[in-house]
Each structure stands twice: as structure tokens, then as C-alpha cells.
Amino acid sequence: MSITIRELTPGFVGEVSGIDLTQPLTAAQAAELEAGMDRYAVLVYHNQRFTDDQQKAFSRNFGPLEETAGGNVTKAADRRLDPEMADVSNLGADHKPLARDDRRRLFNLGNQLWHSDSSFRAIPAKYSLLSGRTVVDAGGNTEFADMRAAYDTLDDRTKAEIEDLVCEHSLIYSRGTLGFSDLSEAEQRMFKPVRQRLARVHPATGRKSLYLSSHIGTIIGWPMPEARAFIRDLTEHAVQPRFTYSHKWRQHDFVMWDNRATMHRVRRFDETLIRDMRRTTVAGSTVTVEQLAA
Known about the structure:
CATH topology: Double-stranded beta-helix
Number of strands: 15
Helix content: 10-25%
Shape: globular
């Protein structure tokens, strides 16, 4: 059976069939899927019954994996998964839902904000690959926004204005908008802001996109209130329904997306229920802007 990609959202989301991702890929298959990512930016697969090792093996077809250290407040002893698997479930190490006031749960509520994975790292992520091991019937959709289309539809004046702008990204900013500000000194050092371009160019396709995220706290050289108001305006533009897709999860769905061309967020769900979602992240290879020394 050959790989087929059916378009779900024009030029943005494709549904892949004709391949079992739990089995080793040939070089030709990996290249075909990467070409699909360059075309669409989001690919959806159904009935992919991964083990963690199989998911990691598939993900490595597209580059080395990013480790999760530095992206959460979960202590090493409390982790459910190994360092190459991001635990974006609502579960603790005992595989039970976290308590409502659990610090880890409150931090993870930031995933409900529009963001790009690892934009808070000096070298941001390439792909995210998310496996729905146990899904919920109501809520919990993952929404995606096409940042290429959002850029394309800006007026020429705005495109010129953002061309050379640089933003600061940090988990301190995104969690702060939710009132989560009780960070230790070590966490504040770990989440130190990094700089990213506001308009970026995709290295494979050459297409420009907006590089937005809830992790943005300011624009370099701008007064912070003005910067945040402008970023809010751009975000409102970027997440209009015409640019977005909402994925309703089925058991064993697998979705991969290109963080260089998208934003995403998860929607609310009943957190007394188990929602086991496991993400691998393919590391990026370049900075979007030269990082200045502290």
C-alpha cells in the first residue's frame, strides 16, 4: 500500500493513510512524509498504536530529539516518562489525574494558550509529534493556526513594520498571564528569556510566517505595554477561523506539526478523567536571531 495524503484543510492539514508508523521507515518513506510536512505543516494519522520506543524511533527519521528538561516544573523524580518524551497528559507518576491544585497541573494549563513549542529555547523546535494513548470523549481538542497564511494576509505596511522586529520568549511570560508566578530562583534562571524574530523564513520552503506565541513578553526596543498590545493584535489576526483547524482526537491518533509554521493550543476537558498524551519533539538546528550575551 502506498502513502496517500488527503487534504483536510486547504494547504494546511493533511490526513495520511497507507503506512504503519510503528514499523521502521525507508528513506523514501521518510522523505515523502517530510515533503508532506513542508506542503501542509500539520499531518494527521489514525490508528497508530505506538510504544514509547516506537514513537521515538519514528520521530528520529526527521532529526535528533529534544529533551524535555527546561520546559516544565516537574521534578525528575516525579516524571512519568523518559527525558525524550514530553508528558502533556494530566497524569502524575502514579498514572492518576493530578489534583486540581497540583503545581504541575497549574503550570500545564499554559498549554491552553496559543503557542509554538520550544519558542522559549534559544534554538526552537522543528516538529512536534503527539500520540493520543488515552483520549477523552468531550473537549481536549488540539487547535492549530497556519502562521504562513496569517503572514501572507497582512497588509504591506505591517509586513514592513515587523520585518526586523525581535521578541523575547519565555515560559515566565506565558505562565505569568495565567497568574502562575511562584517560580523558584532556579526555575527563573532555567526560563530565562531568549530572542526570536517576529517574521521568520522556513528553511525548506522559503515561505515567510509570523512567529507568535504566548511565550512572547516584549519586543526588543519597544515599551512593553505597546509591544504586548501589538502582539495581541497580531495573534487575533493569526487565529481567525479561516486560518485554523481543530483536531478531535480518536484513540491512537497521531498528529505531527511544524513549529516553524504553526501555533497550537489544547482546549479544556474534564480533568478528573484520564487523558494520556505523549509528545516527542524534533530539535531545531538554527536560531531565528543571534542571541545576545547576557
